Amino acid sequence: MAKILLAEDEEVLRMLVVDTLEDEGYHIDEACDGEEAYQHIQKNTYDLILLDYMMPVYTGLELIEMLRREQNGTKIMMLSAKNQASEQQKVLDAGADYFMSKPFSPLELVDRIEEILSETT
């Protein structure tokens, strides 16, 4: 099954997403800030990275820019309450592959992840 990194500083949301994805059979690594996420990415290979936009240390946007400079081609989905069209475009221009607005239902997230992962196979 696919390996996913979830970087989300809001603990309750992180726990909800982790529980939901693990119930679907995904292997999940989790990070509570941008620095911890970056450390995971340096040590592991992921099929998908889910990033919160606003996190301590490195924002999701900063992480995307760092990863793309390093030629990391892993699929990235930004999760954000900043859902204005200009913010979404900024995220996509930085190198994210997908954007999902918060709040979202866990089932909606699972459906989107399944779509993304089926594109790469």
From TrEMBL:
SMART domains: REC. The keyword Phosphoprotein applies. SUPFAM superfamilies: CheY-like. Keywords: Phosphoprotein. Pfam families: Response_reg. The modification 4-aspartylphosphate is found at residue 52. Residues 3-117 form the Response regulatory domain. Transmembrane segments: none annotated. This is Response regulatory domain-containing protein. It comes from Neobacillus kokaensis. The lineage of its organism: Bacteria, Bacillati, Bacillota, Bacilli, Bacillales.
